[in-house]
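Quick one:
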Amino acid sequence: KKSRVVPESERRITAYHESGHAILFHLLPDVGPVYTVSIIPTGTGAAGYTMPLPENDNVFMTKGKLIQDIMVSLGGRIAEELILDDITTGASQDIKQVTQYARAMVTKFGMSDELGLINYDSGEGAQTLIDQEVKKIVNKCYQDAKAMIEEHMDVLHKCAALLLEKERINRVEFEALFDAENATETEA
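Output:
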C-alpha cells in the first residue's frame, strides 16, 4: 500500500492545526497533558493527531471538563484562522464533536442556565432556544480558546516548525517549548 504524498502546504496547515490543539491540551487543567503530537496522516482520514495522556476512568463528566473539551476541539480551527488568511475543511470532525458536546450539555445534562434542568433529548420543542444556547456555549469557548492561543503565538510557531521538521513530537519535546517561552518572559 502506497502512502499518499502530502503537499508541503498541507503539512504546514496540519502542523499549525495540531499545534493549536496541543497548546490548549497543555494549558487547560482537566484535559492534558499532551502525550504525542503528529502530522503523520492516519488511516482514518485524519491529517494528524494530538493525543493527551489517557484519562482517569471517571464516571462523571463535569461542566468544566466538557467546556475544556470543546475549547481543545476548537484549537485546530483557531490556529488555522490565526496563521492562514483562510480556513480549511480539516476541522469538520472537530466542529461536529464540539456541537455534540454543547448540545448534550443543553439537552441532556441540564447545564444551560437558560433552559435549566429539563431533558430535551426527545428533540421536541424549544429547538430555537436549544440552538441559541449551543451557539452561546461554543462562541464563549471559541473566544476563550482563541485568547489562550494568541497569548502563546511563539509556542504555536515553534511547535509547528518542530512538527514540520520531525513529524511527531513527544511530551518532553512539546513541554520544552513552553519552558523556553517562560524562560524568555522571565528574562524580559
